[in-house]
Amino acid sequence: MASETSAAAKRARPLSPHLQIYKPQITSVLSILHRITGVALSVGTLLLVLWIVAVAFGDDGFYAGYMSFLRSGFGMLMLFGWTVALFYHLLNGIRHLFWDAGIGFDLETTRKSGLAVLAGTAALSVAVWAAALAAGAR
């Protein structure tokens, strides 16, 4: 009888955590974003390699077509996304280095450092693009 009760109790308990009731925390969201930006950087690196290949072939044909693509709205959006991914992954990687050293594990520090990573990502991305667009306007 006791085994039947414990078996019924085990079946009645929900699996944890259910995505429907799980409240995302900044640490979990930033962890997922770190993985996503790692993949995005890999794809962006392929674009960089294609650009180097285009430069090697010279100004006619392939290079001109590739630069035309990069200067298009979609190309600029991809470059901006790659820039954001680069700065996010860099800053969050530095945050992880501190964690590897055993620094910053308390909940308040992880929240503040996560927000600092997001703010730094936004500030650096905007600064680089503002400088690049200003240099391109000259």
What layout of secondary structure does this protein have?
Elements: H1 2-12, H2 26-57, H3 59-71, H4 73-100, H5 107-137
Question: Key terms for this structure?
Answer:
single chain; mainly alpha; 3 helical TM bundles of succinate and fumarate reductases; 5 helices; 83% helix
Largest β-sheet summary: none
Distance between the termini: 84 Å
- The number of helical elements comes to 5
The count of β-strands is 0
Per the CATH scheme, the topology name is: 3 helical TM bundles of succinate and fumarate reductases
Please give a structural write-up:
The protein has about 140 residues and is an all-alpha fold. It contains five helices and no strands. The radius of gyration is 23 Å and the shape is elongated.
Quick structural overview:
The chain is mainly α and 138 residues long. It has 5 helices and no strands.
